[in-house]
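Input sequence (114 aa), recorded before submission:
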Amino acid sequence: MKRSRLPTTSRHVMAYKVIETDAVRDELVRTLDYLEFVLFESSFAKKLAGAYLEFLGNIKSFPAMCPEARDSRLRAAGYRKASLLGYVVLYLVKGDTVAVVHLFHQSQDYAQLV
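Predicted structure, token format:
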């Protein structure tokens, strides 16, 4: 049986610094509280929290993984848009830093709220 050859050189993936604004932290807490204590959807709240943490880990290595925002004003400002289980996360990439800025429900007109 032949063993496949693996490349001997490794690719270094740059780790970006990820920061969260106070706004996105507040929006996340309010969203999770609403899901858990108003809608009584604690399992979905945990699922969304897990998806958000996974997103933070992914953009640390791949900040361009999500598309630029569709709204022309947000796109011109450099915003990228991630979709997480019916929610939208807006973030910016500046140099070696990724700033996670806002979290909105997909039904909100988030372009007008930024």
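Checked by second reader. The helical segments are 22-38, 42-61, 72-76, 110-113.
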